[in-house]
Amino acid sequence: MEQISRALDTFQIEIPSWGFANTGTRFGKFQQAAAASTIEEKFADAAQVHALTGVTPTLALHVQWDLPQGVKDAGAIKALEAKYGIRAGSINPNLFQDQEYKFGSIANPDPAIRERATSHMIESAAIAAAVGSRDISLWIADGSNYPGTQSISRRIGWMEESLSALHAALVPGQRMLVEYKPFEPAFYHTDVADWGMALELARSAGPQARVLVDTGHHYQAQNIEQIVAWLLHLNALGGFHFNDRRFADDDLTLGSIDPYQLFRIFHEIHEQGAGGSADIAFMIDQSHNIKGKLEAMVQSVVTAQELYAKAALIDRPRLRELQDSSRTVEAEECFRDAFWQDVRPTLRDWRRTRGLPEDPLAALRESGYVERITAERRERNAKSISTYA
Ligand code: LRH
Ligand code: MN
Ligand code: MN
Questions:
Q1: What are the residue boundaries of the Xylose isomerase-like TIM barrel domain, all occurrences included (predicted)?
Q2: Does 179 contact ligand 1 (Cβ within 6 A)?
């Protein structure tokens, strides 16, 4: 109980504004009447998740989706923070949606487009500074679809220039997180395709840059926990975007396909004594297309806590002994023992002693919150769509 409590007391996880909005696949959206469409509704939904779980005090914002008027909105964000008791979390510039980004943003061969993309990142850093948010999360979606059509090597130099310019604009304490992804939207080459490229770009930008690991952004057989171990070792791990997948970047709720994967990641964090470190931003990055958005978010937060607690339970001194004497099966069983523990009763106790509902998902259903927002938002949402759940 004590071991689990200690781990859980330091565990917080950021939730994304876009997880409450209507999002879908490139083939379409299944609309939900309860979906949030204003920044205020996203803050309200985040506050509900925080009230139920107690561990989601910050909301990640995507500048173009949430803050179309840019830096002028800092006052409005502050007002929402005060009203809902939720702070703005990582600020995400949007470098992938504008028409001019067809051939890239900060790696575009056109210097004027690179310049505009860089200004947008700097403006995002200014928004973050104005609202007192530490991290700017950068997903550079640039790439190309056909061999020979873009200069992979010159684009490296352009990205370095642009990211250094952003770094120079950061205020002390701010961080820029470089997220990598090997595929989608580009299908031949992606400019920041893996952790090596992200790490080198972060290093060349400067000391306030780190790597962001999105669990959905890997090839199938890749050993994500090994990447995490290396980034921790190099003091280069800025944080995570958690989600699960079966095929590609599916954005399924974390732990839904392979909970052992996330357990193994958390193990590497505990192993290097980085559990509870504020320097590793735990964030959820999921778009819920089939599940109800509030339910999916609460379920994800609870699952993350369960897996974090399980990983904290590993008998590490014993495991080390077994590893050192290469007792393979015993070491594996020692590791798996923790994974198979049912931590849910302890989690219920932990919540009760903190005045939180023992079962946040059941409490969400009993609260009537989803029914209320469905009724409130149905009509307005109906104006922009023809059919929805
Ligand atoms: C890209 C990504 C990135 C974006 C988010 C909406 O796949 O993971 O983090 O900002 O999705
Ligand atoms: Mn992501
Ligand atoms: Mn993604």
A1: 69-269
A2: yes
**Strand-pair partners of 237:** 211
Instruction: Name residues with Cβ closer than 5 Å to ligand 3, which is an ion.
Output: 216, 249
Indicate the pTM of the whole model. 0.97
As beta bridge partners, residue 144 has 189
Ligand closest to CA 91: 1
Q: Are 36 and 45 in contact (CB under 8 A)?
A: yes
Q: Please report where in the chains the tokens 């700017």 appear, as a residue.
A: 136
pLDDT tens column, 223-282? 999 999 999 999 999 999 999 999 999 999 999 999 999 999 999 999 999 999 989 999
**Which one of 140, 179, 245 would you pick to mutate in the ligand 1 pocket, going by the greatest count of ligand atoms within 8 A of its CB?**
179
**Contact 249 CB / ligand 1 (< 6 Å):** yes
Quote ipTM for the complex.
0.99
Q: Which CATH superfamily, name and number, covers 2-383? A: Divalent-metal-dependent TIM barrel enzymes (3.20.20.150)
* Strand residue runs (E) in the chain: 15-16, 58-62, 87-92, 135-139, 143-144, 175-179, 189-190, 209-214, 237-242, 281-284
Given a cut of 70, the residues of the chain with pLDDT beneath it are 69-72, 385-389
Query: How many angstroms separate the alpha carbon of residue 216 from the centre of ligand 3?
Result: 6
**Per-residue exposure over 118-150, b if at least 16 CB sit within 10 Å of its own CB, e if not:** bebbbbbbbbbbbbebbbbbbbbbbbbeeeeeb
